[in-house]
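User: Sequence recovery, please. Input:
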């Protein structure tokens, strides 16, 4: 995560920050997420039943795909120089567009949309995050995320 002098944060607004490495979403991760959340819907955990659906197999939970964002965005996002920590401040928008089939590889593309000092020493960064699925035209989701960096 590159640190940038606060005076230079505005220079990154509107610019794509890059794309993460590809990451494979496997059945074990989906099963673990189902156990953590209590969402054991068959389209996530039963390959035989899920094969009979239009998905043709199991799919990741939408919120599992979303929860991969911090890991995938870690090396992409800029932050103010001297930031002691960054916290998730929420989402302005989120649309799940395409399900992630188990076994797919995904990556995140990030663009900084805004950066401003919300309070003294607190910078709010708004980012557009697009989860791409290898070999699939439509993304898994498009989100506008908010992160609060404490300097």
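Assistant: Recovered sequence (151 residues):
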């Amino acid at each position: 995560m590159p640190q940038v002098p606060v005076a230079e944060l505005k220079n990154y607004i509107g610019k794509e920050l890059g794309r993460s490495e590809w990451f494979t979403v496997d059945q074990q991760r989906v099963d673990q997420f189902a156990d953590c959340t209590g969402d054991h819907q068959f389209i996530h955990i039963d390959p035989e039943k899920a094969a009979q659906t239009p998905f043709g197999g199991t799919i990741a939970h939408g919120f599992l795909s979303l929860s991969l964002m911090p890991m995938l965005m870690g090396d992409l996002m800029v932050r103010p120089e001297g930031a002691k920590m960054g916290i998730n401040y929420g989402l302005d928008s989120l649309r799940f567009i395409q399900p992630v089939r188990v076994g797919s590889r995904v990556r995140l593309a990030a663009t900084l949309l805004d950066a401003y000092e919300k309070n003294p020493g607190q910078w709010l960064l708004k980012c557009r995050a697009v989860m791409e699925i290898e070999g699939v035209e439509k993304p898994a989701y498009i989100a506008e995320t908010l992160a609060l960096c404490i300097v």
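Residues 3-25+59-150 form a domain with the Thiol Ester Dehydrase; Chain A fold (CATH 3.10.129.10).
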